[in-house]
Design a protein that fits this description.
The chain has three helices and six strands, in the order ααββββββα. The chain is an alpha+beta fold.
Length: about 170
């Protein structure tokens, strides 16, 4: 009887271990982005982003899960300060590299911003390095970059016109 109980305990340990491994792998996989056209992604980001801005991502120190951005231009929304803190809030958060970015921020929490991996936030100098990179997978890097820069400039122009029209009304 005791050996049967002991075997059940051992078997349950194996089952729990296997379940933990499976769940752990599922959770650690992270974010999966749905494939969308650039137009669909623009509409979604415009609707769901509380703040859209052009900003300089400042250098970070250490192994921080936060970063700072200095706002240069607000294209949508309002900010309480000219320097905001960005946070990694989930596996779908994106940690931007240093430099000038267009940032679509969702989930403003505690005055902080979150940049989502699957969004349109991207560096202005290399706008082909974004979530919809498949659009720019051309063997010629120069053509890819030019197309991405054209798309980004068009997007910024649309956002500026939208902002101006809202101020007129």
């Amino acid at each position: 009887m005791l050996s049967v109980v002991y075997e059940l305990i051992i078997m349950n340990r194996y089952i729990y271990t296997i379940l933990l491994i499976i769940l752990g792998r599922t959770i650690s996989v992270g974010c999966t982005c749905s494939i969308q056209t650039l137009g669909e992604l623009r509409k979604s980001e415009l609707k769901n982003s509380q703040l859209i801005l052009i900003a300089d991502v400042l250098p970070t120190t250490g192994q921080s899960q936060t970063y700072k951005v200095k706002i240069l231009e607000i294209l949508k929304g309002e900010a309480a300060d000219s320097i905001l803190t960005g946070k990694i809030l989930s596996s779908c958060s994106h940690f931007p590299s240093e430099g000038r970015w267009i940032i679509y921020a969702r989930d403003l929490k505690d005055g902080a911003i979150e940049i989502r991996q699957c969004g349109l936030s991207r560096p202005i100098l290399n706008p082909d390095r974004g979530p919809f990179i498949k659009r720019y997978l051309i063997t010629d890097r120069v053509k890819s970059l030019k197309r991405a820069q054209r798309d980004l400039q068009h997007e910024i122009d649309i956002l500026r016109r939208r902002k101006m029209n809202q101020h007129k009304t």
